[in-house]
Amino acid sequence: MTMPIYNIADDIDLTPAMPAEGRESGSYRRPIWQDEIENGTIVAVWKAEPGIYTYPGRDLEETFVVVEGEAIYSQAEEPPVKIGPGTIVSIAKGVPSRLEILSPFRKLATVVPKP
């Protein structure tokens, strides 16, 4: 049995994720943990290259901590905010959001999908 210890900076087990607007690639994810129940909570690392990532309102809640990089973040009709290492962002179910990644970016996210 191996102890489940992870380093957020490790670029192992990354799989392609959402592309940046106008490109075919741009972000990658690495699942860390997933609840065993169907549609359970997910913890993952998300790594992204500079670009724009727009999310429609989704049927889930997400909270993430920025570990590396800077971005301009906006949510619904709220004004954009610059975020960087140490910033914690919470996105409620159904709320659209947008990330304009300014420099190589990495976050640790907890996602709670629809039950």
Automatic annotation (TrEMBL):
Q: Which domain of life is it from?
A: Bacteria
Q: Which residues form the (S)-ureidoglycine aminohydrolase cupin domain?
A: 44-107
* A Pfam family reported for this protein in Swiss-Prot or TrEMBL: Cupin_3
Residue ranges crossing the lipid bilayer per the database entry: none
Quote the Gene3D superfamilies the UniProt record gives.
Answer: Jelly Rolls (2.60.120.10)
Record-given protein name: (S)-ureidoglycine aminohydrolase cupin domain-containing protein
